[in-house]
Amino acid sequence: MVSYCEDAELSHKVGNYNTCPICKTSGIKVKNITVKHLVIDDLMQLVGDMDYYICTNEECDIVYYNSKSGIKFDKQQVKVPIWFKKDAYPKYACYCSKVTEEQVIDAVIRHGAKTVEDVVEITGAMKNSCCIKNNPWGKCCHRIIQDAINKGLSMKQGSPDLGVRDRGSARGQ
Fold first, then answer.
1. CA 23, CA 86: separation in Å to the nearest integer?
2. Complete DSSP assignment for 136-167
3. What is the rounded CA–CA span in Å between residue 173 and residue 170?
């Protein structure tokens, strides 16, 4: 398998448990460098030097939190939409190359992509990797792209003549 990101083989398993102070959902640990790069500039000094957790509840407005310090950042306090949060738009599959879930699905349905490698070729995803700074998880988007491929394949199988509306090229922003 070709690896485009420095941590492509890492999974997004829930580990390092801690609960969101608002919804009480278990979060996933995220490195400080990720949070510093993604909170809005006016709030960057609040981040400090500690690591955070990302709230995995799609309904919760909290994105990053640190229970020890009591600091939390919500969806309006980060620079990018959080792909798994409700109403995220655009819904990025690859933050580094600005490739959306919709573009990945389009690559599957209209262009015949079946693998992550196909999607990389068609969309340009994973070509500008700096995941630790750009992806809200601070990890490679490989798993997110694979999930979008699976969604596209499922849509394609469910409706053989299904065509994604013409949205322009699968590549780009």
1. 14
2. TTSS-SHHHHHHHHHHHHHHHHH-TT------
3. 9
User: Rounded mean pLDDT of 78-95?
Assistant: 96
pLDDT at 18: 87
Model's pTM, two decimal places?
A: 0.81
Q: Would you place residue 39 in the very low, low, confident or very high pLDDT band (cuts 50, 70, 90)?
A: very high
Q: Centre a 10 Å sphere on the Cβ of residue 75 and count the other Cβ atoms it contains.
A: 17
Distance CA 45, CA 132 (A): 19
Distance CA 125, CA 3 (A): 12
Sort strands 71-74 and 92-94 into parallel, antiparallel or unpaired.
Answer: unpaired
Rounded CA separation 107/146 (Å): 12
Residue 163: CB partners within 8 Å, gap ≥ 6? Answer: 109, 110
Residue 133 has pLDDT above 70, yes or no: yes
Measured CA to CA in angstroms, residue 103 lies from 66, 88, 116, 166, 168 at distances of 34, 15, 13, 11, 10
CB 29 within 8 A of CB 67: no
